[in-house]
Fold:
Amino acid sequence: MILRCATTNPGKLREFHRAAEHFGFADVDIQALDGMKSIESCVEDGATFEENAVKKALHYSAWTADPIFADDSGLEVDVLGGAPGVFSARYSSDGSDEANNRLLVANLQGHDDRTARFVCVIALAQQGKLLGTFRGAVEGRIIDEPRGPGGFGYDPLFFYPPFGCTFGEVDAARKMNVSHRGQALSAMLSYAASTGNSR
Ligand code: IMP
Structure:
């Protein structure tokens, strides 16, 4: 069973491989899209995670006969009206994880309401047809000081009450069990496996 993944990021691909195995879909062979770097890239200008994921999946589905999925994800902070949202990767002008985290903490000074969620949407498409979208979300709150060496992005600021620590303080498998990406991916893989939408 082959599913293509619309990413040029080897780290992301590795994470998807690990997750597929973790959720019991070891027979699903997740592969990068051949030659993706030479294909004109897709502009992620959607107002929602859904729009961006769908746009990417449809765009790249023209380049393979296999079903292909694309994801979009980010952090929504309630008191900031859902920001950084679809702009999570480029929240600060510098765009590094450290600068994004610093800006987030600065923007939350004086706010006691720290509720936030990570959201991931995966869109699955085949040859110009959208097969489905799959959304995962995980609720937590944003703390003032980064904690933990693990994860990436906003993980060290994202306190997850059921674990009693941040996502930066847990290993990848523990995070994947509950994460927005884990939820969206396992829903997409269940759908693909049940409909035979892979080959
Ligand atoms: P993208 O889906 O690769 O565009 O990621 C969007 C951005 O959202 C990332 O660069 C991170 O800043 C943030 N983000 C998404 N998922 C996570 C996560 O699991 N942990 C921490 N940050 C995340």
